[in-house]
Every structure is written in structure tokens, then in C-alpha cells.
Amino acid sequence: MTALSGTSGGDGWIGPNERNGWRSRGATVDLVRPVRPSRPVTVPALPAALNLDLARTAMVVVDMQNDFCHPDGWLASIGVDVSAARRPIEPLLALLPALRGVDVPVIWLSWGNRPDRANLPPGVLHVYDPAGAGTGIGSAVPTGSPVLERGSWAAALVDELAPPDTDLRVDKYRMSGFWDTELDTVLRNLDITTVLFGGVNADQCVLATLTDAACAGYDVVMLEDCSATTSPQFCWDATIYNVRQVFGFTADGADVVKAIGP
Question: Is the whole model's pTM more than 0.70, yes or no?
Fold first, then answer.
């Protein structure tokens, strides 16, 4: 497994990971980055089949958190049926080990707000508390755990998806994971050009992050079986249409697993 974090081990290596760094050689600093061989795989996708280079691909999993996916979380507490939000769990459990096995970085992108909410504008707070009743982000009403607050049970990943320490985590504070976060820097330090997306809600945070990734120049692929939404069906349909039409591609994580092979 490629080291995704850390710096020098005292051997002259200067960099955030094994993919991007310099080498100090006495009086010379070597700026030539390590060359990693490509690992192409062909995957069925729409609107066209894809030839992916796994050596420059990352997986971003969005918001598979207790507040969105657990029957005791915030969404469920306000009457939302979270069964749809739980559908990606099994496909992700099949996909992620296969990706890790071929050194594809897995990045968990999740809401992780400051307790004081100091960086959240009214427009973001309104989404989760439209009546201003004090039951949105940061409130411990009604679940007993502060809604989407960093370090809380509410913001934690669902137990089924508990990741290894080698995975990366990025907190976000908007629907898009690129605003006010280090996501772009992390991807660029990993020398990533293609980003696979999964998680919830497909029509909201997944789509917003995918859209910004496409605008930033990344190749984007939404994995349908690893994504879901608690929104009405027409929201899902529109999301799939727009991803295929103007942003990138859709595929299935199960086909990625097949392409990777044993």
C-alpha cells in the first residue's frame, strides 16, 4: 500500500507522500518526482466506456455519516426514510478493499463543522434549519449528538464503513467539498487526474462536489451503485442525466471491481 501521508523518514525524502516529493542528495535537491507505472482498466460506463488509469485515480466517498444514514441520526429523527441512504454501504464494502489493494486512495469527504459554526453563512444554516428553530447544524436536538459537528457521533461514518487508518479524511462545510477545504490540494499532492464519486445525497453534496471537480479539470465518474439519495426519484434521474450530459460519466463500482480482478 502506498503511503498517503507523512514526510521524510530520514532518508532525504521531502514530501507529503510517496507520490509527490523531492529528494535531498547532499548539495543537490532532486525535483524529479517518482515515476509510477500506469495501470489501465476498461470499465463499462455511460455515455461511453472508459479506460481508467488506476495509478492516477482516487475514490471520494461523500457524507456516509450517522446523521444521514443511521436510523438514529438527524435525518431519521425528522421523519426522513434513510433506507435509500444506506444502499451504498454494501457496494462500497465490495469496492473499497479492491481499490485499496491496487493503491487507489480512498478519501472520506464528510460534514465536520466547527462547534461555534463560525465559518457557516446563513444560507448553509438555513438548509438544515429552515424555520430557525435551533434544530440544525450544531444542535443536539433531537438526537442528543450535535448535528454534523466535528468529532461527534452524528458526524461519524456509519460503523459498517469504518475505514483503515491509511484512508484519508477531509471535513467539508458546504454542499461542495471544494469550498474552504483542503480537498483539491490533497488530490493534487496525490497526482490524481480521475476521481470516482459515491455517497449521499447524489443530487446534493455528491453532485456539487463532482461539478466543482469537473470545473477544476478532474475527470469525474459517478458510481451509481455506490451513490444514493433520499430525494424524490426525479432528482436522481436529473443528476444522472446531468453527470452524463455535461460533467463526466456514470459507471458501477461492481464493474470497477471486475476490471481490477483478483
Answer: yes
